[in-house]
Amino acid sequence: MSQVSSDRDSAAGPMSTFMPQNIDAHPMEFTGSGGEYFRVWIVNVLLSIVTLGIYTPWARRRTAQYFYSHTLVAGSPLEFTAQQRKMVMGFVLLMLITLAYNIAANTGQDAAVGVLLLTGAVLSPLIWGSAMRFRLGVTRWRGLRLQFTAHWKEVYLASWPLFALALVWFGVFFGMQILSPELADVLQEVEDEAANPKMPSFTPAMGALLLLGLVLTVLCFIRLEYNYKSLLVLKAQVGAEKGRWKPVYMDFVKVWLATVAVFVLTVVGFSVLIGVLAGSSIALFAGQSSRMGLWMILVIIVSIIAGIFMLILASAPARAYREARMFQLMWNNIGVSHVARFKCHLKSGSYVGLRVKNMLLTLLTLGLYRPFARVSEYRMKCESVTLHVKGGVEQVAGAMVRQQQGGLGDALADAAGLDLIG
Amino acid sequence: MPAPVNTDLLQGRWFDGQSSRARPVMVSLRPTPQGPSLVLHPLSQPGAEPVMFAWKDVGWPEAWNEHKPQPRVVVDLRDHGSVEIDAVSDWRAALAAAGERPGLAQRMQTRWPVLLGVTAAAVIGLTLFYRYGTPWAATQLTRFVPLGWETSVAENVLQQMDDGTLKPSKLPKERQEQLKARFDALVQQTPTTMHRYPDYRPPLSLEFRSGMGANAFALPGGKVVMTDGIVKAAADKGLPDDALVGVLAHEIGHVVYRHTTRMVVEQGVLNMGLGLALGDVSAVVSTGASVLTGLAYSRSHEREADCYAIALMNHTALPTAPMGKLLLAIAHDEEEEENKKKEQEKAGQDKTAAPKADPGASSPERARQRKTAEEMASHPVWSLLSSHPDTVARASELEKGHAPHCTKN
């Protein structure tokens, strides 16, 4: 345990105070099981069905409490202390917003829909911020609450890539019009009347502009992820101890590049496999071309659906790979002031394997395997992390935080697909 | 301080929320009318007074597994921090002794019979709710939807369809006038007793378009659209105009029963309710359930409109048999056509599918679903996937002039 991150000590100046003596290593533990969580989950599903979905905030709380209370950090379980009342209020508010949006969308009130969507886009950093505030604020360990102390202004400043993204596409749009005036005419024509527009010629300059736009988009997204993650760690607090953050932007870019490489490899592998299979089946069908008319359409439809399905399937290893690499990057490079460091020994290969296996089993069981998948993935990630604490876990002093965060942030985050567990 | 009677003292570690330092405490539980209350006896300071926490001031951890308790349990004391207890089995026993009343979720979690009981209740409840509850609620809610909203939706939808697949009608003016006259006569003769919504008086009007094959559909707010194809089909088969009037009566049924508006409400309940309830299982299950139920509602609307047509035709002393013949003939024609030119047909219909799926138009003669109606109907799985009841059964009911499910009218 004593040779903890000696390589990083030399790299980072202030960490030289991180002396090797009296450092305790505490591997994180997860004491839950798939079967047990299946029961938690099926109870949630049943009660949600019986209550027509109104049980959702209770279900979310039970799920979080199951995972938190079975996660031991230095021997002490985490606590999920959200007040049920606030989670319910947040949920009800979200449902009202959704209802308003659905009514507006269904009745063709384009202006109202536009206003709602635009408001959502402008408020999205705020939503993220309040979700993180909720999530950290309701997490307690050894009686101490975590806190997310970022001011909303800091959240908006960190969100600049989002607004840069809008600018990039604005630029691409106008650049296109300058490069190709016919295109502008066509667009105008399309707006005026859907009378067969003639396609304008596509010049290499336009292609380059489009490519530039795409590259900038991806870079913006990576920057956004980097900004949010670093803000989350730097502005997180356990008691009075602040979070530490070491990764740089290029680390994130590298993870993305590696992910793209994995994706290309899987797609190539898949294509070869499908090519072989499809080749043989076409040969099989070639003999009976008389009754092929209707079948051909069916084959085309099936292959389109299969194609979309394959894309999800083929991107799964890449997505799992990215998640694993990101997890390693985070948990190898963050800490709690000078008190604690994390070390992560998650293996990308085995995590990808687990995710692919889980996805296939979930598909085969129409989703019934999902709780088992969730537990096994959570366990693998959780137990790969070791906490190294200097001077014992008893020393962290807390600034008393009394106020509890409202639940709307969580409900909105849930709607946006940010999961409480993971 | 003596330990309270009939409860054991449990060892625990108290974290006061000020620091991560653990303080040794003894925990005991006392039964109160609301439920057990928790008493904390600090051990670190000798002579310190025990602290009492009422039932509602404590976040009681749920029991997840009766046979294999978790290694450590944490009790939430809100602003007073939390208590960690290692002897989880003793803790549960003490809770039970102090009169804990576990919630439904916990009882389902730890007791198989409760879980099975709730499962059975859920299946029955769900069936009843989606079979009777939602349609009833949609019927009632529709009372509050103003006619103006329906009219504006209908205008939007018709505009979209005119821009898309529909073309102006090529029927001669006189023929159009002739059918419009029959339509108006039918509307005039409609008895008010047949209305579910007594105050709902949409201005009923008939329009003609071409495209979309042999078809007719009703828009909310009273507009009924007939295609040249269906007029031609009736003429080709040598059927009297009563067949077309029957179809129009069916469409008027859709209008006066406000099926489109009801479908919007029903689909909303379905998507939201089933999405929330089954969304965590998988998107396939929740979407599948909501599509199948939506189709069942659509079939029941068709039956209702057929009943309305039968009742209205009987009332005006017109025969319903020609309409039944027309339905069968169109289904038959389409099947033949399908066999002849499958490819173009398919492409054309896929295009028409988009505007038709719009909730704004309840089109009863959806060609797509009926392409092989006879074969499909015989198989129960196929009939579940159809927006319309089995054509043969419908046609024979119409030919007889009454149907078993139309008892009310």
What report would you give on this structure?
The complex is a heterodimer of chains A (422) and B (409). Chain A is an alpha+beta fold. Chain A has a domain at 1-30 and 250-395. Chain A has 14 helices and eleven strands. Chain A has helices at residues 6-11, 34-50, 56-69, 84-106, 110-137, 152-158, 160-179, 181-192, 204-234, 249-286, 292-333, 348-364, 370-383, 408-415; strands spanning 23-27, 29-30, 71-73, 76-80, 139-141, 144-148, 236-238, 241-245, 334-336, 340-344, 385-390. In chain A, strands 1-11-10-9-8-7-6-5-4-3-2 form an eleven-stranded antiparallel beta sheet. In chain A, helix 7 (160-179) packs antiparallel against helix 9 (204-234). Chain A is globular, with a radius of gyration of 26 Å. Chain A starts with 5 loop residues before the first helix and ends in a 7-residue tail after the last helix. Chain B is elongated. Mean pLDDT of chain B is 81; it is low at 1-6 and 348-378. By secondary structure, chain B is of the alpha+beta class. Chain B folds into two domains: 10-106, PH-domain like (Roll), CATH 2.30.29; 147-400, no CATH class. Chain B has a six-stranded antiparallel beta sheet. Chain B is built from 14 helices and ten strands. Chain B has helices spanning 88-97, 104-110, 112-142, 147-163, 173-189, 228-236, 241-256, 259-278, 283-315, 321-340, 342-357, 373-378, 380-384, 391-400; strands spanning 10-15, 23-32, 35-42, 51-53, 73-76, 82-85, 167-168, 205-210, 216-218, 223-227. Chains A and B meet through helix 2, helix 3, strand 4, helix 4 and helix 11 of A and strand 5, helix 2, helix 3, helix 4 and helix 8 of B.
**Cα distance, first to last residue of chain B?**
79 Å
Give the strand tally of chain B. Answer: 10
Average pLDDT reading of chain B: 81
Ranges of chain A where pLDDT stays below 50 over 5 or more residues in a row are 1-19
Helical content of chain A (DSSP H or I, runs of 4+): 55-70%
Q: SSE order of chain B in H/E notation?
A: EEEEEEHHHHEHEEEHHHHHHHHH
Tally of separate domains of chain B? 2
Quaternary organisation of the protein chains: heterodimer
Let me know the largest β-sheet of chain B. 6 strands, antiparallel
Structural class category of chain B: alpha+beta
Q: What amount of the residues of chain A lies in strands?
A: 5-15%
Strand order of the largest sheet of chain A: 1-11-10-9-8-7-6-5-4-3-2
Radius of gyration of chain A: 26 Å
Strand residue percentage of chain B:
5-15%
**Topology of chain A as a string of helices (H) and strands (E):** HEEHHEEHHEEHHHHEEHHEEHHEH
Biggest sheet strand line-up of chain B: 4-3-2-1-6-5
Structural class of chain A: alpha+beta
Work out the largest interface and the residue count of each chain.
Answer: A-B, 64 and 61 residues
**Distance from first to last alpha carbon of chain A:** 27 Å
Number of strands of chain A: 11
